[in-house]
UniProtKB/TrEMBL annotation, chains A, B:
GO molecular function, one term: NAD+ binding
Single Gene Ontology BP annotation: tyrosine biosynthetic process
Pfam families: PDH_C, PDH_N
InterPro entries: 6-PGluconate_DH-like_C_sf, NAD(P)-bd_dom_sf, PDH_C, PDH_N, Preph/Arog_dehydrog, Prephen_DH
Keywords: Amino-acid biosynthesis, Aromatic amino acid biosynthesis, NAD, Oxidoreductase, Tyrosine biosynthesis
Residue span(s) of domain Prephenate/arogenate dehydrogenase: 6-294
Entry superkingdom: Bacteria
Species of origin: Sphingomonas crocodyli
Pathway annotation from the record: Amino-acid biosynthesis; L-tyrosine biosynthesis; (4-hydroxyphenyl)pyruvate from prephenate (NAD(+) route): step 1/1
Name of this protein: prephenate dehydrogenase
Amino acid sequence: MIPLFSSVTIIGLGLIGSSIARAIRLHMPDVRLSGYDASATVRARAAELSLVDDVAERAGTAVRGSELVILCVPIGAMASVADSFKTDLAANAIVSDVGSSKASVAAILREALPGVHIVPAHPVAGTENSGPDAGFSSLFQGRWCILTPPEGTDSDIVDKMSQFWRGLGANVEIMAAEHHDLVLAVTSHLPHLIAYTIVGTAADMEQVTRGEVIKFSAGGFRDFTRIAASDPTMWRDIFLSNRDAVLEMLQRFTEDLTALQRAIRWGDGTKLFDLFSRTRSIRRSIIEQGQDDAAADFGRRH
Amino acid sequence: MIPLFSSVTIIGLGLIGSSIARAIRLHMPDVRLSGYDASATVRARAAELSLVDDVAERAGTAVRGSELVILCVPIGAMASVADSFKTDLAANAIVSDVGSSKASVAAILREALPGVHIVPAHPVAGTENSGPDAGFSSLFQGRWCILTPPEGTDSDIVDKMSQFWRGLGANVEIMAAEHHDLVLAVTSHLPHLIAYTIVGTAADMEQVTRGEVIKFSAGGFRDFTRIAASDPTMWRDIFLSNRDAVLEMLQRFTEDLTALQRAIRWGDGTKLFDLFSRTRSIRRSIIEQGQDDAAADFGRRH
């Protein structure tokens, strides 16, 4: 097979960036990899781990001569990082990203890099851990990667990016950025916001409960703390950049929660039971579609 | 070591009941085990699995001669099941349960079984799966079991129950039923209610998003579906029996969520970032205290 790209640059070497680097090493060993991170500590660690062939001291140096540049930075940093390397980009280089909201990122990149081929992407995969040591090569295996190419993007370029992500083990889906933002507001952004909130609420209760919230977290709370341990900068930027869809979903959620609250207050067991039965079937669908594991407690040690 | 109990009866052979049976077989092989379940299907399956030495056709038959009877049934079924075996209980038998709310269960059992030694218990452990096949002997290993003996309970009996649960691998904590109900409202009941709600909200969105909520669930949503797949009857009864503490926690949660909603609407990134940073440290405490696993994504297959 002719390699898709002979050279790839990864800007931002955290959980996602370093996982892409590791997956490229594994699946596309001939690719020349360069990388950059705004943090000197991360750059040093990336060099120690040999995540890429060259860790550059400037983003501009890292992208020079690269056929594909992937931005793995928080959404709020996209504009300035794109600006910092735009004069160094090779002719016909493709620029992509891994941001969790897409319409605003597409607008940012279009404005910062006029005339450049831009194919925004969102690999729907991750863990609560951050940094270059947290990544692993199988992170994208069997997970979805959503591409949101702007209208008018050359179909060859979209095909190439699809093949690239399939090569890293992902399934690829193509959709409009606005639709992506609505779907992800439901499946990812709202759940994260709720998890952050409830962990905060519980933390405030710790004064009353003397450390017992943490001690007895296995009752359900610990699953929320996992989600609420995700990178704060990344998530701040997601909520600010996908504001409208998140607020819309939040409104629906609050209405539903208020209805349940009323059912509890009035002792309406049937209403509770009906909802609780319905949600079980959703879980079954997710396991059937291979998006999660049915193993009890996910192999947590017992 | 002198065995704590020579005979134990388990009423209700679902996830928790069958796990207790399996753990007793493993750690206390000399105990004579009997069991009962209201469902004939479950009784047949329990016999096939040899979960207990004798599966009885009536609760009364199962408890006869037993030194310890553990009720592993939904809270709403406690009163009638206790009533059904009360004339068969051996003198000096201890009756315990595994219900997730304790003040109301204590009142129910006290009323149904006057003069009987009652030591309500709550093993804070479980999975989203139900039924006799879902149990496993290590479910309680390293988890907490909270005992809420009513004031005036003989301390020898409390000690015996503590030793029993330690023998099954659990850590034991003793507290007042009312305090238990408050702590668990935060660490377990509210998280479950939130998870049920968000999965319901997302299910309603499926019409808009054509199956995509399930497809892209790996972004955070799938963790909620796991919790929201828990047994509907059990959870209906928990919310109805711990109503006041749940409503109080729900009110706090809603206030906090509204504040975040406002921060998103007004673009207050600092407020979001501050909360998201604070919640990370809670996660760290949980892992340090051994109540969860730091493994990325809990050994889900990649």
